[in-house]
Design a protein that fits this description.
With 262 residues, the chain is α/β, with parallel strands linked by helices. The chain is built from eight helices and ten strands. The strands form two sheets. It has a seven-stranded parallel sheet.
């Protein structure tokens, strides 16, 4: 697991965007795993700017989103399909037929989950998966107690996640308590994983992810098993790590080594 500690959310987003830009320049037909929430927004803005500058194209890209609220149609303003259209897809040259978000309005959600796994497999698997992290350590909507080898499935949201996401819904608006989410096993199948985290409210989750034991109580700790996982975090999110200077030193040495190899 590689830990990159940067000054603030702007630097985190720029660093994360650069990883995706390099991926698309290397492999224009990449299969991207994408995430929603407030953390990726600045990263998506960076990708849009790179597209507008003709540094990258999404013409041959396929994408799969982590999750969706169960019970919301894709046209609902709080659905994650709507979010992705607004924040990224409407601003780039991607073929929307090649963008996949779990169907929140599926008549048979269990079949839809199995179908989603089959679509990912048919696309050749995910090349690079973007993640955020909840303050309880969830990735996607894999809440604490999620199986570390779980696949795409219907998941009940915890009280903490519902409370964290309540700010996106009006007081009189229906807020779903169920979701369809990629499983932790599905996420670990991605060839590369990039997790972004900013803010002091994520510090406990980052500590558990990086230095805690591998446990279902912190789903993100499963990233310890991944051979190419990068955590890009700001100073606030890194504030409870035992030796931040050590992680910074390792990152500097990694960059020197990469420069020598390039």
């Amino acid at each position: 697991m590689q830990i990159v500690i940067l000054k603030d959310s702007a630097e985190v987003a720029a660093y994360g965007a650069n990883i995706f830009i390099k991926q698309l320049q290397k492999k224009p037909d990449s299969v991207l795993g994408l995430a929603t929430g407030s953390t990726p927004v600045l990263l998506y803005q960076g990708l849009i700017e790179a597209f507008e500058a003709q540094l990258i194209s999404f013409e041959n890209v396929t994408s799969f989103n982590l999750d969706e609220y169960l019970g919301l149609e894709g046209t609902h303003p709080q659905s994650y399909r709507y979010f992705m259209n607004e924040q990224l897809f409407d601003h780039i040259d991607i073929n929307k037929m090649q963008t996949h978000v779990p169907p929140g309005d599926a008549e048979n959600p269990l079949e839809a989950c199995q179908g989603y796994e089959q679509q990912i497999e048919a696309a050749g698997g995910i090349d690079i998966q973007l993640l955020g992290i909840g303050r309880n350590g969830h990735i996607g909507f894999n809440e604490p107690s999620s199986g570390l080898m779980s696949r795409t499935r219907v998941k009940t949201l915890t009280k903490a996640t519902i409370e964290d996401n309540a700010r996106f819904f009006n007081d009189d608006e229906y807020q779903p308590h169920l979701s369809i989410t990629m499983g932790i096993g599905t996420i670990l199948d991605a060839r590369k994983v990039v997790l972004l985290a900013t803010g002091e409210n994520k510090a406990d989750a980052i500590l558990a992810t990086v230095e805690g034991p591998l446990m279902a109580a912190c789903p993100a700790s499963a990233l310890q098993l991944h051979t190419d996982a990068v955590l890009v975090i700001d100073e606030a999110a890194a504030s409870k790590l035992s030796d931040r200077d050590f992680y910074k030193h390792i990152e500097i040495e990694n960059q020197k080594l990469l420069a020598q190899l390039s």
